[in-house]
């Protein structure tokens, strides 16, 4: 990635939720390789600290902070702590997500329903509102929401997740309107990526489905989301806001 991309993020501060694993970790390392300092948050501090060490190995500053983004007060505490550490946030990436497994929709309990909406929708709202306002009052910035192709192609096994991510899509456009022109707000809709979560998949069945339902006939590699995020955070996307960018291998 370092040798190939043309985007320079030197001097920028990037805060990534869900930044200790999966696509969040890949973006943390990708932005660090492009020169940014990285704030990494998730519920597990030890995992954040491990990713922070990998960022520091690339010669950038890293900060680890434990937060449950489904909780309003912890979002507020995260914002205060990030600004105390770095003095600013140039790029916010709302990546944390939750998609529970259930047998039937009727089996979803209220507590589980609420937790899915809280992590996937309430957290990004509160962080975008709080950090976006500070960006507006300062030098501007970028917000990147990580949604899902499931938000536009929902299935019976991701009802609450798809609904929350569809809300995130709508919120992306609304925040772009609220905070433009100083703050650009965009959204990436990933398809199936072969992150640590895919270890629980039946890969033989997945590969068979991919042959007929994904134009690229495979799942995505985690680093294949990085360039999309770098583009949206960079001046190259200076006239791009409120956009929903599919990175899904051509699912159909």
TrEMBL record:
E.C. no: 1.1.1.-
Chain coiled-coil ranges: none
TM region positions: none
Source domain of life: Bacteria
Pfam families: adh_short_C2 (PF13561)
Entries under CDD domains matching the protein: SDR_c
GO molecular function: oxidoreductase activity
Keywords: Oxidoreductase
Family the UniProt entry places it in: Belongs to the short-chain dehydrogenases/reductases (SDR) family.
Protein name in the entry: SDR family NAD(P)-dependent oxidoreductase
Species of origin: Marinibaculum pumilum
Taxonomic path: Bacteria, Pseudomonadati, Pseudomonadota, Alphaproteobacteria, Rhodospirillales
């Amino acid at each position: 990635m370092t040798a190939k991309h043309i985007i320079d993020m030197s001097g920028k501060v990037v805060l990534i939720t869900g930044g200790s694993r999966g696509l969040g970790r890949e973006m943390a390392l990708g932005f660090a390789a492009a020169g940014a300092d990285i704030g990494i948050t998730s519920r597990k501090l030890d995992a954040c600290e491990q990713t922070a060490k990998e960022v520091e190995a690339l010669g950038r500053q890293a900060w680890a902070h434990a937060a449950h983004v489904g909780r309003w007060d912890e979002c507020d505490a995260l914002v205060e702590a990030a600004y105390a550490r770095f003095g600013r946030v140039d790029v916010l990436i709302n990546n944390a997500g939750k998609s529970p497994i259930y047998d039937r929709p009727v089996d979803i309990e209220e507590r589980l329903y609420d937790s899915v909406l809280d992590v996937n929708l309430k957290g990004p709202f509160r962080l975008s509102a709080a950090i976006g306002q500070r960006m507006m009052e300062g030098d501007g910035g970028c917000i990147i929401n990580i949604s899902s192709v499931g938000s536009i192609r929902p299935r019976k096994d991701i009802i609450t997740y798809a609904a929350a991510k569809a809300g995130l899509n709508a919120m992306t456009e609304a925040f772009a309107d609220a905070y433009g022109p100083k703050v650009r707000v965009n959204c990436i809709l990933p398809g199936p990526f072969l992150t640590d979560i895919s270890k629980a998949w039946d890969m033989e069945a997945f590969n068979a489905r991919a042959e007929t339902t994904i134009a690229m006939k495979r799942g995505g590699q985690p680093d294949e989301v990085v360039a999309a995020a770098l583009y949206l955070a960079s001046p190259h996307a200076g006239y791009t806001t409120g956009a929903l960018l599919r990175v899904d291998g051509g699912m159909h």
